[in-house]
Amino acid sequence: MNTQYAINYIVLNRVSHGLLVGQVGHGWVTAMMTHQKETLKQWLIKTARWVIHSMQ
């Protein structure tokens, strides 16, 4: 399982979760994407590494 796949998987989970919880989730995702791109990227990488580590 490579890092890009893990990141894509996490993004899809976040987006679908956002859709499930409605505007609040959508607003959170939008705010994260627009205002904190670098922070979000770092968080995704950290989370992806954790996911990969957990699966080993």
Short summary of the structure?
This protein has about 55 residues and is mainly alpha-helical. Helix content is about 90%, strand content about 0%.
Radius of gyration: 12 Å
Poorly predicted runs are: none
**Helix and strand pattern:** HHH
The general outline is globular
The tally of beta strands, per DSSP, is: 0
Q: What is the residue-mean pLDDT, rounded to a whole number?
A: 72
N- to C-terminal distance: 10 Å
Q: Helix coverage percent of residues?
A: over 70%
Biggest sheet layout: none
Structural class: mainly alpha
Total helices: the number is 3
How many distinct folded domains? 1
Which percent band covers the strand fraction?
Answer: under 5%
Structure description:
The protein is an all-alpha fold. The chain has one domain (3-20, 33-55). Helices cover 91% and strands 0% of the residues. The chain is built from three helices and no strands. It has helices at residues 3-21, 23-35, 37-55. It is globular, with a radius of gyration of 12 Å. The chain starts with a helix and ends with a helix. The model has no long low-confidence stretch (mean pLDDT 72).
